[in-house]
Every structure is written in structure tokens, then in C-alpha cells.
Amino acid sequence: MFDSFPSGVSERMDRPTYHADFGRVYDSGIGFLNKLERGQHFKERGFASWEAFAAGDWTQALSLADERRDDYARELQKAERLGVRHRRLRVVEFPITPYVQWEFFVLRVRAGLGDDIKVLDAREISDIEKERPVPEAVILGDLAMYEVVYDDDGNAAGANRFTERSLIQETSLGFDTLYERGEGFHDFFDREIVPLAPPQGPGAQTGFPG
Fold first, then answer.
1. Which of 70-74, 144-148, 203-207 has the lowest mean pLDDT?
2. 156-162 and 85-92 strand pairing
3. Is the pLDDT of residue 17 over 70?
4. Residue-wise over 106-135: b if at least 16 C-beta within 10 A, else e?
5. How far is residue 7's CA from residue 171's CA, in Å, rounded to a whole number?
6. Residue 202 φ/ψ, nearest 5 degrees
7. What is the DSSP secondary structure assignment for residue 122, as one 8-state letter?
8. How far is the C-alpha of 16 from the C-alpha of 143, rounded, in Å?
């Protein structure tokens, strides 16, 4: 699964170019968007909820988690208007990192608006990840696929763009297989996220281990 992905031919795009290209392709008639998220440590600079989390104010971070609710609602309304089905699969490692713990409160806002999100325990795909983790991939129908890339500090830095149809189809099939194995968002959230205490100790403020 995802065997061809590492050798796929891609074009590197910086963040503004990636966003512009994504918007252009998305509006062209793609049918579906599949997003596979694998990383456990990221930074979301400019997002007030994440900034509060990074500063160690967990209560404030949670109170601001729905800051972008209107943006998410518009995004899903546009998807419905264009006939684009959104699916997101979030791979989670245990123990759950502070960043992922925070992120799930934001994802809960999306799920509450109707975003189709499933969760997959990383331990369940250890056989697939013997050589490398599954990719951070965003698939726009059969037209384009992006591998989201980050700098060494966890900040979004753009994407690698793939257009080879056979590679996109292979990756989509891999996504479909894992998605079917995923657990419903709310079941996972209630069982694994709700009981967690607020992040404490080294790395809790930044979302990175000490």
C-alpha cells in the first residue's frame, strides 16, 4: 500500500503557490477530496486557539477552538454546492501527543458541521508502516494530489504536487482501504480524548516532546 508514492514525480510548491493551485483544481470539478493526516506534532501559527495552547492556557485554547466555525461551514457549503465529497482520516499514535489532543477539539467543530472524519490507531497499520509512515496526502479527485510538507519546526511549508493518474489512483485506493478500517470520530473522541487531563510538563506548551 502506497508503495509507489515515494518514487512519484512531483513539483515542489511553496505555501502560497500550493494554496492557489489547490483552489484552482478544487473549483474545476473534482468529485471528491480525501485527506490523510499522519503527523503528530505541528504548529498552527496565527490560529488563536493554537496560540493559547502553545502559551500553556488550555482553558482559553478550548474556548477558542470553534474560532473558525464559520469558515468551516462555508467550506462545507461550497463542497455541497460543487458536489465534492470530503473525507478525512486522522492517524493517531499512542500515547496521544499534546498537539493531537488539542487538534481533536478543533476537529470536533468540523465533525459537528458534517465533515466526514474517521480516526485510525497507528498501531493497526504497523505492518504497512514497516519502512515508512503513510503519507500526508491531500487528493483532489483524479486531477491532483499533494504531499503536505513541513519545516523542521513543524510549520506548514507548502506541498509536493503530483499529477500522474496511476499514482493518484493507487494512493486513493490505499486511502479507501484505511478509511474503511477507521473509527467514527465521535466514538474515538469520547473514549480517548475526553478523559485526558490537560497537557502538562515539557512540550505541553509547544505541542512537541521536551
1. 203-207
2. unpaired
3. yes
4. bbbbbbeeebbbbbbbbeebeebeeeeebb
5. 12
6. -55, 135
7. G
8. 19
| pLDDT value for 18 | 97
What does R_g of the chain's alpha carbons equal in angstroms?
17
Q: Residue 198: exposed, middle, or buried by beta-carbon count in 10 A (0-12, 13-18, 19+)? A: middle
How many Å apart are CA 53 and CA 209, to the nearest integer? 14
CA–chain centroid gap for 150, Å, is 13
Q: Which pTM value belongs to this model?
A: 0.93
Phi and psi (nearest 5°) for 184?
A: -55, 140
Nearest partner of 49 among 37, 62, 39, judged by Cα: 62
**How high is the pLDDT of residue 64?**
97
* pLDDT, tens digit, 9 for 90 and up, residues 5-16: 999 999 999 999
For the chain, the average pLDDT equals: 93
Amino acid identity of residue 82, one-letter, is L
The rounded distance, in Å, linking the Cα atoms of 106 and 199 is: 16
Secondary structure class of 111 (helix, strand, coil) = helix
What does the pLDDT read at residue 90? 98
According to the model, what pLDDT value does residue 153 have?
82
For residue 138 the three cell numbers come to 491531500
More confident residue, 133 or 156: 133
CB count in 10 Å sphere of residue 89:
23
| Pairing relationship of beta strands 117-121 and 183-184 according to DSSP bridges | antiparallel
Please state, as a whole number, how many other Cβ atoms lie within 10 Å of the Cβ of residue 174.
22
Q: Mention every residue, 6+ apart, whose C-beta is less than 8 A from residue 116.
A: 85, 86, 87, 88
- Residue 68 contacts residue 47 (beta carbons within 8 Å): yes
